[in-house]
Amino acid sequence: MKDRDAHIVNVIRSLREGEVVTYGDIAADAGYPKLSRLVGRILATTDEELPWWRVVNSVGRLVPGNEIEQTVLLKAEGVTVLEGKVRRARVGRFSQ
Predict the structure, then answer these.
(1) Please, are residues 27 and 38 in contact by the beta-carbon 8 Å criterion?
(2) From CA 71, how far away is CA 84, in angstroms rounded?
(3) 80, β-bridge pairs
(4) DSSP of 14-76
(5) Sheet with 55-56, side-by-side order of all strands
(6) Can you give the pLDDT of all 96 residues of the chain as single tens digits?
């Protein structure tokens, strides 16, 4: 794994229960603010066990094709999901 990818994976691994962030947030926190698409690619292709359900797009939209599973996982962590979008989370971009 490239160092860049390892930094991104480490940021994703550090997400706490009830925390929801965007692909761009992960990229910026890892030191690569323009590489949000890389975050998505890593999440889609890695064999590592990562809390993928805690990462959404910039408007809170869930991962296409995995909306039901992601909704269940997020709601179990106290995150409010309505109409396929995160509306409120305990921690992160969507906290209030």
Answers:
(1) yes
(2) 8
(3) 88
(4) TPPTTEEEEHHHHHHHHT-TT-HHHHHHHHHH--S---GGGEE-TT-BPPTT-HHHHHHHHHH
(5) 55-56, 19-22, 91-92
(6) 689 999 999 999 999 999 999 999 999 999 999 999 999 999 999 999 999 999 999 999 999 999 999 999 999 999 999 999 999 999 999 987
What is the β-pairing status of strands 85-88 and 55-56?
unpaired
Q: List domains and CATH numbers for the chain.
A: 3-92 (1.10.10.10)
Query: If DSSP codes are grouped into helix, strand and coil, which group holds residue 84?
Result: coil
* Polymer length of the chain: 96
Alpha-carbon distance of 51 to 11, in angstroms, equals: 10
The pTM score is: 0.94
